[in-house]
Amino acid sequence: xxxxxxxxxxxxxxxxxxxxxxxxxxVRQVAEAFGYSASELAAVPAEANLGLSCGNPTAxxxxxxxxxVVDLGCGGGFDVLLAAAKVGPTGKAIGIDMTPDMLDxxxxxxxxxxxxxxxxxxxxxxxxxxxxxxxxxVISNCVINLATDKPAVFREIARVLKPGGRLAAxxxxxxxxxxxxxxHDLAAYVGCIGGAISIDAYREGLHAAGLDQVDVIDAGADLxxxxxxxGQAACCSPGAPGDCSPGLHxxxxxxxxxxxxxxxxxxxxxxxxxxxx
Length: 277
Prior knowledge:
Layout: H1 4-16, H2 25-33, H3 38-43, H4 57-60, E1 68-72, H5 78-87, E2 92-97, H6 100-113, E3 118-122, E4 135-141, H7 150-160, E5 161-174, H8 180-183, H9 186-190, H10 199-208, E6 212-218, H11 248-256, E7 265-273
Helix pairs in contact: 1-6
């Protein structure tokens, strides 16, 4: 398989400039299928939602005013902006993404929303540009599965959390091994399925990183929801002149036509605490 990190950066950069937004029915339906309410969708610029979620981590995180929260793989800023409202002006919401086009989109969305208690950094989620013990809560939405070094991501989460801090993430994990033709399919990897690890491996990885009270729970969501966006990601979109190859959602829809992901994978709610309080 080619350079996975480069492929992820390329495809998510294209998604950032594709014009996807909550104004498109399929994109909105994906967010709703994975737990976002109509009021949450209305609370942020439509362009912040790209139909790439697999859960709603801000609904799991029990964020409080004054807290510092970091979103690993923030995309267009959807969850960062929702988190910023929950932590309030005395708190801070930090977005991390390795894709420049995504960060440009997130910053534009934050400016459009008039949100001041946010900041964004270009970085990989296994090398966070944050001080140790500086964060109350780590959230993430369907991104950790994309990391090629998941143990390093888990260690970074443990490092940046304050004692007593928590992880509240949504992700894809496996209930049983994927068929080889899916496991080795680049579109399936970039589409958040091919790189997923088992639910047990997820728990063990977080424990090995030093986190406690770990739980990885099958949310029971239908992963076929991603096919709702098929055909809505314009292949010859503004910002990508001359690039008429299939977009991220179109590639994933082609994978989903070949197998039912619910037989192998699950949208999971991930919880963990850093010991110390």
